[in-house]
């Protein structure tokens, strides 16, 4: 059985979340932090040998106060990320165990994930070395110029919106980051593409939303009700039933 390490980037600035009390991965969602919902989808899997969470150095003290017990009990490795997403993933990648055959990168702020989607993207990566979840673009796309005036309507043919998880054979992702040379990719697939290596798209779901704004939290709460319950029955946040979020 192939072995997977999972990296959860959670070191972003959350500038669009606009909350004075917490950043989006640490916000409460159904009485549990957003990042814990994301983590638990992987912790129950026999093929996952490690989970690495990348947080901002400025969040370390608050994270330890709120979540150190969770990380310890659940066996999660916590590393300090960098200024950009790629910097954080690179820092986490350096901590991946050598027995991991594949590395999965999943947004810590993308909590509405079904086990079946993970199965499908893991299996595709095993067959083809690199695979990501994505959905076809459904809306009409407009390129907008100065003064918010439409410049052109862009054809959506062949356009997909990338999601996570994104899964790669470990050495392939290591090679992609070794040749990054400071390039700030918007996702990890972009770095693999720069090597000239193919990345396969696996059909995801519109339910697999990324929490970016406070309004997204409400959408995520409803979306999670439609997902099958995770098999994982381990410990939740030790203060999940108390008001320890502020």
Fold and architecture overview:
The chain is of the alpha/beta class. It has one domain (4-225): Spore Coat Polysaccharide Biosynthesis Protein SpsA, Chain A. The chain has seven helices and eleven strands. It has a seven-stranded mixed beta sheet with strand order 5-4-1-6-10-7-11, sandwiched between helices. β4, α2 (60-74) and β5 (77-80) form a beta-alpha-beta unit. The longest helix is centred in the first third of the chain and has 15 residues, at 60-74. The radius of gyration is 18 Å and the shape is globular. Mean pLDDT is 89; it is low at 235-246.
Name the overall outline: globular
Question: Major sheet: order of its strands?
Answer: 5-4-1-6-10-7-11
The CATH superfamily title:
Spore Coat Polysaccharide Biosynthesis Protein SpsA, Chain A
CATH architecture: Alpha-Beta Complex
CATH topology: Spore Coat Polysaccharide Biosynthesis Protein SpsA, Chain A
Unreliable sequence segments: 235-246
């Amino acid at each position: 059985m192939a072995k997977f390490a999972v990296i959860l980037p959670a070191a972003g600035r959350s500038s669009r979340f606009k909350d004075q009390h917490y950043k989006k991965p640490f916000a409460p969602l159904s009485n549990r932090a957003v990042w814990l919902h994301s983590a638990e989808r992987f912790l129950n899997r026999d093929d996952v040998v490690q989970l690495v969470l990348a947080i901002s150095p400025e969040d370390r003290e608050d994270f330890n106060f709120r979540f150190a017990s969770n990380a310890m009990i659940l066996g999660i490795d916590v590393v300090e990320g960098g200024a950009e997403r790629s910097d954080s993933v690179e820092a986490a990648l350096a901590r991946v165990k050598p027995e991991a055959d594949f590395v999965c990168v999943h947004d810590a702020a993308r909590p509405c994930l079904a086990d079946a989607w993970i199965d499908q993207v893991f299996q595709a990566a095993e067959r083809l070395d690199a695979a990501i979840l994505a959905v076809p673009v459904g809306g009409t796309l407009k390129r907008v110029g100065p003064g918010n005036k439409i410049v052109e309507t862009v054809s959506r043919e062949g356009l997909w919106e990338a999601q996570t998880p994104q899964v790669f054979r470990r050495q392939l992702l290591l090679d992609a980051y070794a040749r990054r040379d400071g390039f700030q990719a918007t996702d990890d697939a972009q770095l693999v593409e720069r090597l000239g290596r193919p990345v396969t798209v696996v059909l995801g779901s519109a339910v697999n939303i990324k929490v970016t704004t406070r309004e997204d939290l409400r959408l995520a709460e409803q979306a999670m009700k439609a997902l099958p319950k995770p098999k994982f029955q381990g410990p939740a946040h030790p203060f999940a039933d108390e008001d320890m979020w502020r």
